[in-house]
Predict the structure.
Amino acid sequence: MELRIKRAPRLDLEITVPGDKSISHRAVIIAALSNGVCTLGGFLPSEDCMRTVNAMRALGIRIEQPEPDTLIVHGKKRVLMPPKKEIDCGNSGTTMRLLAGLLAGQTFESRLVADAGLSRRPMDRVITPLRRMGANIVAEGPEQTPPLRIHGGSLRGIRYRLPIASAQIKGALLLAGLFAKGKTTVDEPTPTRNHTEVMLSYFLVRTAKNGDGSLTVFGDQVPESRDFTIPGDISAAAFWLVAAAARPRGHLLVREVGLNDTRTAVLGVLLRMGAQVREAIEEVDQLEPRGIVEVTGAPLKGTVIQGREVPQLIDELPILAVAGALANGKTIIRHAQELRVKETDRIAATAHNLRTMGAQVTEMNDGLEIHGPALLHGARVPSFGDHRIAMAFAIAGLFADGETIVQDADCIRKSYPGFESVLEEFTNSKRMQVSTPVIGSLTSPPVEEV
Ligand code: S3P
């Protein structure tokens, strides 16, 4: 599929976004380990999250889906069945890495396979600590890439310092820790999204956040079954937030979106770039805060994104690079070498597509330097099979002269079914009735000194 995009007029919209991808994966897995029936609302029915659902079904868990965004998960008190065949994780790195942790503690053998894209992504980062816990796990691909063969067994809790800030690896180790003897403690170089530990706490699993910031899970516990409603995905909202922020007097309200502060760094960056950004947390009962974000656009100015901010907006960097191209002055993104091992090399892909559309960009080992403002022109740009590249350049097309064509845009289904219809609303932006929320102001975070 190709996406064809034209410059958007002034925009003024109110939207919701589909359920959070990271939370959807974790909710399904932890509900499946629980001691009863859990109804999960707001589930993201995207290709990646359905990989996790089907994997849990292959492990003997009954999961009904009465509506695309509702799951009824029949937890079996941590009892999983040996899968009849290999488990296909498709393109979903989160599925593969979280399952590696889960399966490391089972008594049966399993094999996790991947599509061509995921088969190029590194797995040593999850294999090394799981082996240290006693798991028998082998990567069959070259240089520790998928497939993974896991011969589960009895695990012992360890203390492990992650060499790379990665919520997927932290999540894998905490899930393995549930099946390990004693306690498992994970120490992160800088804080990453905390959805695994939050979801474990929500399901009444005993965890601890230690004084030094490390996290502990105590082994041998059964999550208590509970219902949960997954909030909207702020990483999906980020595309529209940038579209509104970079259009002077553009206005956007996003409702029912997740506002967990390990995920909202993108809002601080947009504020620093000159947009008006306000958020209101409306609900915290289910431990994952959710509420409203409102953005009013302005002429943006360049900024620096580096240090501890990077893991907290890692998925938003391609769209923030587009914002940088539209901003006055220089935008620098550093310490983001992890982008090179996402669904594609996002540093190279972003630089390539921005240049194709007329922006001046310098590629660095660990980031990008973008000189704005660029007069973007419509062009034919590849998605590189990466959903976030496809969506970032669809948004760039809203600001370009002439037509922009994003090639191979089917990959968007990985995280955002329905993206095209919102894009349509943006291109035809008609004034929509928006009620005035009571909403708090954010203060602009300074660029971190490193
Ligand atoms: C995710 C963590 C991030 C992110 C990915 C989802 C998660 O990956 O890029 O889209 O759900 O834990 P890393 O943990 O590898 O940084």
